[in-house]
């Protein structure tokens, strides 16, 4: 069953949601506010002291890595705070602490700097921190039928294929996926 709503109804739903969210956040942070009515302006409120909040920014990369940056924000105006993080997803909040997350459509900086594709001793497509001979495994994928690889592909994996971009990361995985050995049931 399809329900149709007008643009006005959709805008009202969005407005009610925004007001509800703003009220929730005001209630969340209100214990840190000191609100006083000015005698000359009956309905105006002022914030007499700022709020200090610990902010954690989590970046989740295509390769599965999650990085975190922690910082302290001093907030004078909630609108400014929320607009600063408008492109982040709110993951958790409690008094004095907020955690935001953002999906990054790229591989992690660590992988770009130190990542190499190679083959583990068991024949798994593996990402190493540094050349494969250092055996510093970051992530393993799937078992490869080495006998089906061309000689130059075997040599590339033995030497290590440096990972410089998301596109290359995805291309290498897709290229070697066709040599994947399906799991054999016990």
From TrEMBL:
Domain Bypass of forespore C C-terminal residue range list: 105-177
Entries under Pfam families matching the protein: BofC_C, BOFC_N
Domain of life assignment: Bacteria
Ranges annotated as spanning the membrane: none
Ranges where the Bypass-of-forespore C N-terminal domain occurs: 53-103
Protein name in UniProt: Regulator
